[in-house]
Structures are given as C-alpha cells and as structure tokens.
Amino acid sequence: MRCIGDYEIGETIGEGAFSKVKVGVHRVTGRRVALKFINTNMMEQTVGYLQFRREIEIHSRLRHRNIAQLIQVIEDEDRGRTCLVVEFIQGRDLLDVISDSQKGGLSESEASVYFSQIVAAVQYLHGNGIAHRDIKLENVMVTDTGVCKIIDFGFSRGTKDNDIMKTPCGSPVYVSPEIMKKKTYCGMQSDVWSLGVLLYSLVSGCVPWAGLDIIRKRERAERGDYIPLQDASPSLQNLIMGCLCVEPEDRMTIMDVQSHEWTMRRHLKRRVSGPFRSMVRKIMR
C-alpha cells in the first residue's frame, strides 16, 4: 500500500488540471480523509500559484464545525507535489439537496436549519478577518447527519472591516452589484449579498434572476430588482431584503444576519437528516 506521511493512499475520487484527489486512511486511527495532490512543479508556472498558497495559509488556520477542516499540508518535494489532507465529508452539496426537493425548494423550517449553520461559519470567518468571496450553494456541503460545511477557499482573503478590494472574483450569479460594476468593494459586505442570493435560492429553488441572460441579470441585480417570494413569511422577506441592498453601506452585516429573528428561529424539534450519498467532487478544487 502506498503511503504519504501517516496516511495510506486509496482510490482516486476526483481530478483537476493540476490536482488529483484520493481517499486516504490514517494508519493508526483509521480515520478517512481526502488527500488532494497538487502538482506544484507545473502550477508554479501559472498565475494561480500565489492564490493556491494563500488558500493554504488561510484554510490551515480555520477551526469551525461548519467549515471543512484542512488537517495537514505535506510537501513532497521529491515528486514536486503538495498534499492537502482534508476532512472527508460524506454527503453532497446544497445545490444537489435543492435539486432533489420535489417542491423546487426547501421549507422555511428546513432552510433555517441549513442557513443558520452557514451564517455561523461566515460570522466566524469575518470575526477572524477573512472574507470568503465565493459563497454559493455548490460551496456548502451537507453531511449525512445534516451538518453544513463551507468549502473552497480559493478566493478567500484576509481583511479588516473596512479594507477595500479591487480584484473581481466569485460566481456571476452570486456576486454583488459593486463587483459587477468593477468598483472597489469590501469583501465582507459582498459575502452578505451572496448569502442573500443563497437564502433566496434555498427557499425558492432558483436564484433571484433565474432565466435571464448575464446582461439582464446584471441590470436587475444592480437595481436590486428581484421577484419577492410570494409564500415567504414577512420575517424571511425582511432578511432577504436586508442582504440584497444595492448600496453596501445599507446592507446588513453578518452580525445583523446572525441575530435576525428568522435566522434565530428554530422550527424543528429534531435535526434535519442530510443526504446519504458520498461526496467526492467538491472537496477542494
């Protein structure tokens, strides 16, 4: 059996341009992990190398129940590669969860359980001076016991409350109006906008501007023009509206979102059971 560090290397479960993800098992504890091997010799020649190193630096210091843990970084200089030992998540992403919903979206009861966990993770990030900058359904895994875990810190950046950023990043459907307009922006304020889009999608089953081309979507988003959820409670409507304020200074902070009555409410007496399908493709890009 091939090994790296304290881990036995198992089957391949994912592959990218510069990386390959394999199942790993700790030789002493038997703990399953995901081993992501990055060909750093090849990657060093690309503009993404510094971003990759920044991702490692940020992700390695995060410890939160709702964030996928980067356990260890192993430098394999002889083979010109870096191995990221990542928490293995048995489950699937939130987009798959919604796609399998027969109602086209989740009930407010179900959505609040997931959303409150995501907000707790983002509050932890912001409290530690980190903006995620790519919050979306696909970057939230749900374990088979219903625990949400944020993944993919490729666009994350250390920041302060009022730090101004210039580099546009994130997924087109989720980015804030200020990023669309190519203005300078605060990463934490943009994260809150993305949370608003995610929350709308959780309940409705689609993004606020579904079915529109990128130009029309941008025009609507820049005006804060979206169709309100007809069957949503007033509290949920208020929360979404607070996240999707066009002007960043009028937008809720992550503390506002976390303390909002809708986020705080507890509809279910028992935890939501998560999906029982294995996750592999979303561990880390």
TrEMBL record:
GO terms for cellular component: cytoplasm. Its EC number is 2.7.11.1. One of its GO terms (molecular function) is protein serine/threonine kinase activity. It catalyses: L-threonyl-[protein] + ATP = O-phospho-L-threonyl-[protein] + ADP + H(+); L-seryl-[protein] + ATP = O-phospho-L-seryl-[protein] + ADP + H(+). GO terms for biological process: intracellular signal transduction. PANTHER family: MAP/MICROTUBULE AFFINITY-REGULATING KINASE (PTHR24346), MATERNAL EMBRYONIC LEUCINE ZIPPER KINASE (PTHR24346:SF30). Belongs to the protein kinase superfamily. This is non-specific serine/threonine protein kinase. It comes from Planoprotostelium fungivorum.
